[in-house]
Amino acid sequence: MKVNYVCTKCGKVEDVTTRAPKCECGGLWKLQYELPEFDEALIDKDEWSIFRYRAFMPLADETWKSVTMGEGMTPIVPFDEDLMLKMDYFMPTLSFKDRGAAVLISHCKSIGVTDVVQDSSGNAGNSVAAYCGRVGINCEIFVPEGTSPKKIDMIRAHGAKANVVPGSRDHCADVCRAKVTEEGKYYANHVYNPFFYEGTKTYIYEIYEQLHRIPRNIFIPLGNGTLFLGGVFGLEHLVASGVIPEMPNVIAIQSEHCAPFAEAKRQGLKVPAAVTPEPTLAEGIAIGQPMRGVEILEKIYKYDMEIVEIPEETILPARAALAAKGIYCEHTTAGNYAAYLKYCELHGRTPDSLITMCGAGLKSDH
């Protein structure tokens, strides 16, 4: 399978072995390769990880075998008669980010990368640190102040260096990217590097394989767009392959304290709106300056997606309601349920809905 990077801004084609985190013009990379039609016969059902779907991934070799820790294959649990939960915190590092990190670090190992840096609100950094530790890649993670101490402890336990940066999540990213520019380290970032989305799109493949269909309503949290874009890519693939007749109703979730996409849609903007993030328990989606914002908005407008904003005061009650039924998730994840309830408040009962449980509760008890 021939795979290239293509700049989303100027269209320049680059080999995927490049260490450049983005194009010289400033545009981010996307992957260019010929994707076979989705066919369940191409799923390796003897492989119990996301790599059972490797026929639909642009992998250069079998390096993934030394990287995988059995990520993916998470159960779908009925919560009530209208709502299903995809238990994506049933992962090696207790978050859905393992889907993307496993593929990205497989790529890094395959092309001989020895040192990486990454910025994160905690979960992605933890995933990258874990998979780097597994294959002997040196790793340095930058997290913003206020990140759960337990997430920082996990990053360090995997052998990575963790730097806590004062200020906002967006400032943390700026500090990390400055190090990439100054020292030439490989930027193993879940937003910049398109290999990450090749992992998160397996979220959709799994849902289809498990249910033999796609639910009518899929709620996806939206900060930097890691799961959102991967999910949309997966759904588009199923539609293009004739496996499902049309896109389901995808509802994007933002925090009311940081909602650049919701505000952009209200104003009809083609770029994320300029917002000043306020403190929120939904730290995982508190991204004021999403780097793939234009790409994300194009998908939102193309499919006329709704965006629901989580009322801040509903996050803790939502977390308590989930925990009372045995589901102990982190605050950002509880926000997904709070957003679903808000959507039902606005639109009435919404049967055949699915939300992700993307992070475990023990990671955010602080």
Automatic annotation (TrEMBL):
One of its GO terms (biological process) is L-threonine catabolic process. It comes from the Bacteria. The keyword Lyase applies. Its cofactor is pyridoxal 5'-phosphate. PROSITE patterns: DEHYDRATASE_SER_THR. One of its GO terms (molecular function) is L-serine ammonia-lyase activity. Residues 67-355 form the Tryptophan synthase beta chain-like PALP domain. Keywords: Lyase, Pyridoxal phosphate. The keyword Lyase applies. Pfam families: PALP. This is L-threonine synthase. It comes from Succiniclasticum ruminis DSM 9236.
